[in-house]
Amino acid sequence: MDLLIEKDTGQIKLSEYNLLVQDIEASSPSMTVDRRTVKNRSGVINAGAQFVSKTIKVAGSFYASSLLDYENRVDELNALLIDLDPYYITKMIPINDELYQYQIPGETTNDLNLLEIEHEPFKYRYKVQPDGDLNFQFNGKSDKGLFFKFTFYFITAEMPFGETIPKTLSINSDSISYDGTAKNSQLEYPWTIKLVADTQQSGTFTLMIGSKTFSYSSQTDIQSGDIFLLKGIETTKNGTNVNNYTNREHFVLEPRLDKEIPVTTNFQGTIQILNFVEFYK
Questions:
Q1: In this structure, which CATH number among 2.60.120.860, 3.30.750.24, 2.60.40.420, 3.40.980.10 belongs to the domain 164-280?
Q2: Which residue, 195, 202, 201, 275, is CA-closest to 227?
Q3: Are residues 3 and 57 in contact, defined by beta-carbon separation less than 8 angstroms?
Q4: What secondary structure, in 3-state letters, does 18-41 show?
Q5: Contact, 224 vs 233, CB < 8 A?
Q6: CATH class of residue range 2-156
Q7: Best CA proximity match to 18, nearest among 115, 113, 142, 110
Q8: 118-125 mean pLDDT
Q9: Each residue's pLDDT tens digit, 51-106
């Protein structure tokens, strides 16, 4: 197992610091629930709930050749992980199963080098900040050097979910594949519907995604090449705000058992989702 850290300046794995990651645990997202009581009325009124944050624990070990090597390693990790600006972390999964193979005593003569096992990133990542100090604990000495265990804690900096890498998704059918396990609302995360007309058509159209229906109505025909951007809080046509011609609807990508969100529209042209991301609880 390994941990990939991504910042604007580049990316690096903990194994590149000779740290062996042995466990990565992510909590369920914490919740706040607004419950209200009414005098002389039994029960409570559920006034809504929201997810707040998610914590990620990373634990493992490493060897230092000397106390000086240890102190230098701590400085490097503080420089990497203790940051005022949020960054992304991704769990890295071993590609092969060498770690779990059984051997007859004496069958091989070489130890398995866990730091050299090839890994691949998991399907989602977390945007985080450090949660508390980096913890290091001395656990003895061997012929490999001074042995330390470490524990790092992170907390989500924005959305309390795992996030897939943003991409542009073209809608070419009557549904959108959404594998995420949490809702993704345009009012909480910046994704955009881009519509490009491929022919002259009526100035009125609707677009339904899931349970939300957006409508646009104008006396002026839509021309081939016109570009609409539906951002949830704003709609533009060729760069000009046209909110007054819409019902000001926003969209929400909601998890479904069949993992397909229905799409219906009478717009003639191409439709894309810009900055498409799937959220995982």
A1: 2.60.120.860
A2: 195
A3: no
A4: CCEEEEEEECCCCEEEEEECCCCC
A5: no
A6: mainly beta
A7: 115
A8: 94
A9: 999 999 999 999 999 999 999 999 999 999 999 999 999 999 988 766 556 556 66
